[in-house]
Amino acid sequence: MTLQLRQICLVARELEPAVEDLTEILGINRCFVDPGVGKFGLKNTLMPIGTNFLEVVTPIAEGTAAGRYLKRRGGDGGYMVITQADSLESQQAVRQNALDNGVRIAFESVREDWNLCQLHPGDMKAAFLEIESDAYNDFQGYWHPVGGTDWQNHVNRDVTSELMGVELQTNDPEALATLWAKVAGLPFSREGAAFSLKLNNASIRFVKEEDGRGAGLSGLDIAVENREHVLSVARQQGCYVSDDQVDICGVHWYLKSNES
Description:
The chain is of the alpha+beta class. It is 23% helix and 39% strand. It is built from six helices and 15 strands. The strands form two sheets. Strands 9-10-11-8-12-15-14-13 form an eight-stranded mixed sheet. A seven-stranded mixed sheet has the order 2-3-1-4-7-6-5. A hairpin with a 3-residue loop joins β5 (105-110) and β6. The model has no long low-confidence stretch (mean pLDDT 96).
């Protein structure tokens, strides 16, 4: 079984300011607006980071899951970890693992050429986990949530080149790592005080919550090609934390080199 980190979704109270900070600081471009999220009471914008994607959603209706998440965590932050499986069989295996471990399915869509399953964040404790499979399962190419392959014309890797990892925070990192590993059907390992689960192209790191915001998607590791651009614009936008970290849209962005 192979799972590829394909997309991260953030949630923001205001869409445009968050997207402006992300595109300007990280040097990435917008590529797609998905009208389909309207049925969930949301609007969104997507941006490619290498061959994978960053999405920001904002509630536009009352009573949305995203709105409740904003309230629970006290503001903008990480929302969903979205993966692509190497086959429909793998996607269905993860779905069954979830059910076997008492995790509810929050939403799913079953079609001939595209299947997705979103696992309930209340049961996954820190974020939605979504698993998708389509007719291509091309980890470098076609991606249904951005409309296919038109996104390729919007890629800029001069500043930020790829997503490398996800940080999930909780009061019990080992228990959360154990749960996510059982659902994903993958082993986890310990790295100092943190625990780590390896996907095909990235890692999910489970760390102790220390900021008072509760369990959630707290950080992202990114490979940067032009650190000075990131830091300079982050200072202008009030997002600078250190030469290795900027905070945007309620998320810690840890700046790495491709050799990290």
